[in-house]
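Technical annex, item 7. During the second reporting period the consortium partners agreed on a shared format for inverse folding records so that results from different sites could be compared directly. Each record opens with the tokenized structure and is followed by the designed sequence. A conforming record, contributed by the partner at site C, is shown below for reference.
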């Protein structure tokens, strides 16, 4: 008889006993059973006392998590991101945003990468949630990174960690700060489109809503202001600013917190009734670089989104001082940006024995197995087809 003790977390241990001998149920005497019970109970105590140290799923992330199992992971990710960004500098911004949109929905578990599937479990992809649809970029780049990482260390590095590493690397390649990335996240086995629609902030939000969306993720006002600094690079579609340019709050007039020269420039780039998918740079002077211009732009009413300008133009707001500090001192911005990126990267992480290390970032492993099986079957039947054609 084997007693199996499984612990999903310190408080969630279960004992499953299996009988291995064919007729052992008849042979085992009551005395033996009670001995086994005592042994199992003793083992249970050992697990309860020490389980937290060894089997806990609440393990902390660790910057040297892959030191032994995939020591080159950082340079592998860096190489792919660097190559892609040579041709497409915007990709650095897109990858940071992908990480943000992942972490705000079910935590940093790579749920954003999961495609729609009906079997073996139904997954409603977050990719079609309003803030992501036709908007997020970089899914193919993540797959390219995953392939490179799997070639070096198969089955070791999670897609959630790849997103986090790619963000730090994007910061550095974009001229921003570097930091040691806490690692050891595991991938989730589900996604939640409804939560993506609820949790991700809207560009039309006022300051209170922005603060509360961040607070719901354990991020404070400093985090909000520091992380919004990611809008120092990348692009936004005209559709998110046309109301500010032509009919703010149904006034028939532009947003009064928009500089008039900047307004004319933006109207040129986003004509009224024009293509909402046209792109505008977030930062009018250094569009592909991480620097503190985002904050100096806000000071002169040149924030692109309403949600950006809210940080400086909301009367009496506690965010104004932070904007001024970051505009004056880029080092202060970089220090806060790092700290807040690490904090965001910690949201709801799955560690230890929970979740899984996905084989393919767009599918949970059960689905990958199903797809592998299907491809084996189709290969076999095509081979049969070949045989019968002779
Ligand atoms: C504070 C609330 C935020 C709102 C309302 C917001 C909203 C938006 C919107 C509407 C876009 C343009 C999307 C499009 O045109 O399709 C965008 C782009 C972007 N966002 Fe945010 N965002 C916020 C916070 C953040 C945070 C916290 C980060 C990262 C830490 C971030 C990083 C980016 C980047 C880098 C881009 C450009 C992406 C690209 O060019 O592909 N945003 N954001």
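Designed sequence (site C submission):
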């Amino acid at each position: 008889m084997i007693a199996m003790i499984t612990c999903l977390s310190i408080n969630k241990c279960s004992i499953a006993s299996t009988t291995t001998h064919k007729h052992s149920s008849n042979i085992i005497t009551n005395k033996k059973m009670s001995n086994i019970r005592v042994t199992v109970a003793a083992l249970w105590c050992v697990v309860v006392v020490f389980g937290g140290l060894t089997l806990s799923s609440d393990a902390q992330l660790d910057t040297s998590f892959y030191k032994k199992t995939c020591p080159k992971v950082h340079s592998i990710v860096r190489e792919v991101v660097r190559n892609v960004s040579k041709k497409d500098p915007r990709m650095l911004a897109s990858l940071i945003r992908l990480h943000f949109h992942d972490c705000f929905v079910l935590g940093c578990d790579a749920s954003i990468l999961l495609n729609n599937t009906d079997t073996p479990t139904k997954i409603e992809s977050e990719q079609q949630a309003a803030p992501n649809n036709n908007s997020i970029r970089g899914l193919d780049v993540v797959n390219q990174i995953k392939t490179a990482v799997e070639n070096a260390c198969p089955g070791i590095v999670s897609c959630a960690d790849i997103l986090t590493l790619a963000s730090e690397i994007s910061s550095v390649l974009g001229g921003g700060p570097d930091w040691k990335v806490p690692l050891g996240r595991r991938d989730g086995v589900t996604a939640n489109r409804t939560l993506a629609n609820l949790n991700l902030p809207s560009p039309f939000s006022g300051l209170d809503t922005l603060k509360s969306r961040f607070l719901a993720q354990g991020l404070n006002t400093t985090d909000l202001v520091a992380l919004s600094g990611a809008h120092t690079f990348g692009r936004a579609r005209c559709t998110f600013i046309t109301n500010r340019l032509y009919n703010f709050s149904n006034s028939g007039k532009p947003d009064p917190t928009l500089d008039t020269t900047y307004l004319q420039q933006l109207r040129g780039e986003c004509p009224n009734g024009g293509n909402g998918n046209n792109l505008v740079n977030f930062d009018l002077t250094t569009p592909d670089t991480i620097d503190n211009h985002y904050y100096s732009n806000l000071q002169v009413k040149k924030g692109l989104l309403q949600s950006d300008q809210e940080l400086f133009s909301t009367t009496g707001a506690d965010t104004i001082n932070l904007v001024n500090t970051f505009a004056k001192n880029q080092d202060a911005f970089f220090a806060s940006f790092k700290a807040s990126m690490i904090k965001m990267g910690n949201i709801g992480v799955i560690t230890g024995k929970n979740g899984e290390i996905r084989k393919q970032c767009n599918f949970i492993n059960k689905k990958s197995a199903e797809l592998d099986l299907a491809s084996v079957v189709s290969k076999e039947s095509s081979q049969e087809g070949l045989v019968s054609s002779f």
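The CA atoms of residues 238 and 341 lie 27 Å apart. The beta strands are 2-7, 13-18, 235-237, 279-281. All partners now use this format for quarterly exchanges.
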